[in-house]
UniProtKB/TrEMBL annotation:
Predominant place of localization: nucleus
Localization: Nucleus
Name this protein carries in UniProt: HTH CENPB-type domain-containing protein
GO molecular function: DNA binding
Species: Macrosiphum euphorbiae
Span of domain HTH CENPB-type: 64-134
Keyword tags: DNA-binding
A cellular-component GO term for this protein: nucleus
PROSITE patterns: HTH_CENPB (PS51253)
Superkingdom of the organism of origin: Eukaryota
């Protein structure tokens, strides 16, 4: 029978990593020393930078010294705190007895009968700096007075920052392989489970006032889908994460914020980053990022990304889906075969290209529309960029056969959920089985090309074709690819020659 997995506190992890670094030991020795499994020790070593950053950046010193009680489903305090944040985001009043009851539910869910005392409650409140106050009647609907007050406040908040240091981040959901004729069945889906949930991603976009995007953070359902087989995902200039529902979590967001803070530190920049008050967005104390949260229920008016940037991104992305469909529509037997050719890897490439196509002027207009106005920047609130992209997209849709056309194709997933919206405590207890799915339904296409020389021959044929058609842009792009593969072929020949010479001697 396998031994029970031992959970280490953050303090214990730091001690084990300190021992590993000072003694220069193997993962097996580290595992024996601290009574953990070898796989667990390997994971510790692999994730040591993240663990050290978490240790350094955490604002509460007690988190560094207090030994925290664990359940099989994770840390009790962390689970209850996750629930607390979700409840407060919904403006639900929380009292001490309610917190104690939720802690009991966590214990029972983990099959461990126990009691929670006032001592536990006091420590919990102290650890997370929680104080109980009367909640004033805060409306869930958008309050124009709140919006007006925020617009005055935001001008003051950004007044001391350069435009390039004013950022907004948010994470829309994306049906990455939907066809126009499937729009009706997907419209207004929040998509928490089932077949449709397998066709979704969460994409976090982060951009500054002048239109400079950070590399996107994309969350899928499988850490290593089949299409990643021969791909080093770290070289794709994006962040890739995965969990069972392809949702944003506080853990993922915390790691990204620490990465972004470290990046700004290296660039010697102090920035201000605006986020909505989603449950998955932690309130961290960071060195180079001033984290500011938008007022509840005001993102439709106060968040720049919601003023047209996300919509622009989705319209451009769906143009790429349409072009894929139009390029293959004559060679497939049935329209239902078309989505099967779209892999997660295709989606990642299209997401990157879609972000690159969003203009700086479009982004700046959306910031201004949200009240982010600086004295030295002229105000221009027209949204012609989005309108033009929609026109192009509609032209592509109209080129499809009638039975494949559909309404609302471009923004079909605007209501797609990207985080846990319930306050059921059971949903905050994460087990090992919840971390990720390991399958992907899309089959990888089979290719007959076996070496770089064959690829080069085909590219040269394509170059000749574009030249014959007078397609200068296509010819230019293919020539760039031709130069790349010529270099690959010559390197292979040099390696082969070197091998033959070595064998000769």
């Amino acid at each position: 029978m396998a031994s029970k997995r031992k959970h280490l506190t953050l303090t214990e992890k730091i001690k084990s990593l300190d021992f590993y670094q000072k003694e220069n030991v193997s993962a097996r020795t580290l595992a024996d020393k601290f009574g953990i499994g070898r796989t667990q020790a390997t994971d510790l070593i692999k994730n040591r930078e993240t663990i050290l950053k978490l240790w350094k950046s955490h604002g509460n010193d007690q988190m560094k010294t207090t030994k925290r009680r664990k359940t099989e489903s994770g840390n009790i305090n962390e689970v209850v705190y996750e629930w607390f944040c979700a409840a407060r985001a919904k403006n639900i009043p929380i009292s001490g007895p309610i917190l104690k009851e939720k802690a009991l539910q966590v214990l029972h869910a983990a099959l461990q009968g126990s009691k929670t005392s006032n001592g536990w409650l006091d420590k919990f409140k102290s650890r997370y700096n929680i104080s109980f106050k009367v909640v004033c009647g805060e409306s869930k609907s958008v309050d124009t007075e709140t919006v007006d007050e925020w617009r005055i406040k935001v001008k003051q908040l950004i007044s001391s920052y350069e435009p390039r240091n004013i950022y907004n981040a948010d994470e829309p959901g994306l049906f990455y392989k939907i066809l126009p004729n499937k729009t009706l069945s997907f419209k207004n889906e929040i998509c928490t489970s089932g077949k449709k949930s397998k066709e979704r991603l969460t994409v976090m976009l982060c951009v500054n006032l002048i239109g400079e995007f950070e590399k996107p953070l994309i969350i899928g359902k499988s850490k290593k889908p089949r299409c990643f087989k021969n791909v080093d995902i770290k070289r794709l200039d994006l962040h890739w994460e995965a969990n069972k529902k392809a949702w944003m979590t506080r853990c993922i967001m915390t790691e990204w914020l620490m990465w972004f803070d470290e990046k700004m530190k290296k660039q010697k920049r102090k920035i201000i980053l605006f986020l909505d008050n989603a449950t998955s967005h932690p309130d961290l104390k960071l060195q180079n990022i001033n984290l500011v949260f938008l007022p509840p229920n005001t993102t439709s008016h106060c968040q720049p990304l919601d003023q047209g940037i996300i919509q622009n991104f989705k319209v451009i992305y769906r143009q790429m889906i349409l072009r894929r469909i139009l390029s293959q529509i004559d060679v497939v037997k049935d329209a239902d075969e078309l989505p099967k050719s779209i892999t997660v890897l295709d989606a990642l490439m299209w997401i990157k290209q879609s972000v690159k196509k969003i203009t700086g002027s479009c982004v700046t207009k959306c910031f201004k529309k949200s009240g982010f106005i600086l004295e030295n920047l002229p105000v221009d609130l027209d949204n012609t960029d989005l309108e033009n992209e929609i026109i192009v997209g509609e032209q592509l849709v109209n080129m499809l056969p009638t039975h494949m056309q559909g309404e609302d194709f471009f923004l079909v997933d605007e209501n797609l959920r990207t985080e846990e919206d319930s306050t059921d405590i059971k949903l905050f207890i994460i087990t090992d089985n919840d971390e990720e799915e390991t399958h992907e339904e899309t089959e990888e296409p089979e290719y007959t090309v076996s070496n770089y020389s064959e690829v080069l021959t085909q590219i040269q044929q394509l170059s000749a074709f574009t030249l014959q058609k007078g397609d200068v842009d296509g010819y230019d792009m293919l020539k760039t690819a031709e130069i790349y593969f010529e270099k690959k072929c010559s390197n292979n020949q040099m390696n082969l020659k070197q091998t033959n010479i070595t064998q000769f001697f």
